[in-house]
Amino acid sequence: MSTGTPGAAIGIPEPSPQPPPTAAPPVPQELLATAKEGLAAREQQPKRVIVIGGGMAGLVAAFELDRQGHEPVVLEAQNRVGGRVYTMREFAPGLYAEAGAMRIPKVHTLTLEYCKLFGLRMRPFVMNNNRTLLHLAGRTTTFEQADLQPQELPFELAEHERGKTWTQLWDESTRDIRELHERSGQAGWDQIMRQYDQYSLREFLQSKGWSEGAIEMYAVLSFREQNMNTAVVEQFFEIIGRAFEEMQFIDGGTDLLAQSFYRRIEGRVRFGAVVHAIEQDEHGVTVHYRNRGGHYQVHGDYAICTLPFPVLSNVEVTPALSRQKRQAIRELRYNASTKILFQVRRRFWEQAPYHIVGGTTATDLPIRRIVYPSTVDYDTERGVLLASYTWGQDALRWGSMSESDRIEQALEDVAKIHPEIVDEFEVGASHAWFNDPFAGGAFAQFEPGQVTRMQEHIVAPEGRIWFAGEHCSLYHAWIQGALESGIRAAREIHETPTRVLTPSG
Q1: Is the pLDDT of residue 39 over 70?
Q2: Could you count the other beta carbons within 10 Å of the beta carbon of residue 491?
């Protein structure tokens, strides 16, 4: 069992020590420059790099290495690229829906830079809509009415909380944190992490004097009831980092971004390649994989492993990874997420009495939330409704059902809010990410204390093996995190001065 420094053991110069990242800062200019112009040119022999996984991290790493004349080989277990970017197209012609990533914030400039590079059309993604509904304790109202009369909601609030919305309470409780970040930048982030990394979201709200009724209101209306025991810093990364402001989506499907990368490295990708073992020594890396045709191996100078940790845990690595890396693989939590989608004959939610285009309906029913399309399609009356989007235990319960049972139960719940669904429903589809053998969950999510204890070990290379994926960034659950980590791994390999010739595979 290896407990020393893997790189030293097999003759690879160790990267210069870097302090562990403590929060999600603005995208460094060198990353944006890479998206625009590629990696900085260096005179060197091409390096053969085995990229394990054809998700967004693997695609961008292979794309950038290929742009600089290296020889990436992408091993993808499925018959498609994109990973958790998964656009479902099994609906009526012209209709599609996102089982995975579906929106891009304005502040995610790296993702948008690649969309620009590939000429993808962007459209606004509507996050907030006063016309969307709240269905709580059997009663239905609109968000607009709830904001005007929050005291009418079925939550038992303390005297000082009454008459305030959950967003007002949250803004009051995080004002000092936002001001510290605005005033001190990265140094402010570091202070925030030191002060709050040990808190769960629930513990943070309790420390701010919230009543149980206010915590319940926040949990239900912000869709975080199943995530209240996760690290509060996950919230800070997104809310203070303005991740939910000015959202956009890729017109035609998020998978167009994955396909754009793929078309430029098509000859480098091997589909159906299920990796089961990785070996490295002073000469290079050998990756063993299988498909229905048999067992194979491919050799390279380096490897970039983008497998989610639940999947990587089933891969044999020789020599063994460091103790800290193995611990991170075991402990890093992946959140469950399940989406249930309905194709309808008529987009009734756009018409009276609702007049809803975009936004989300919140409910205490098992479906939890309904997400409406952000645009009106004038070419057809049909549409696809995200009838249920759940996380955590809610998602696991849906995932434990058969597909037909999910759709039937979701229909019953949606009908309590939108009775029209009974007549307008045509077909349904769903995807439970925790049940997906190539994902093992929807996204990584820290528990209290893990960001400072584990992040440096999550991202650290081990000998000739680099690691990438949204879990190797602080942009958990976002395309941005996958891209940032993939570029980082590609750049570090590109800049590594050693070159060891390996047999072709």
Answers
A1: yes
A2: 20
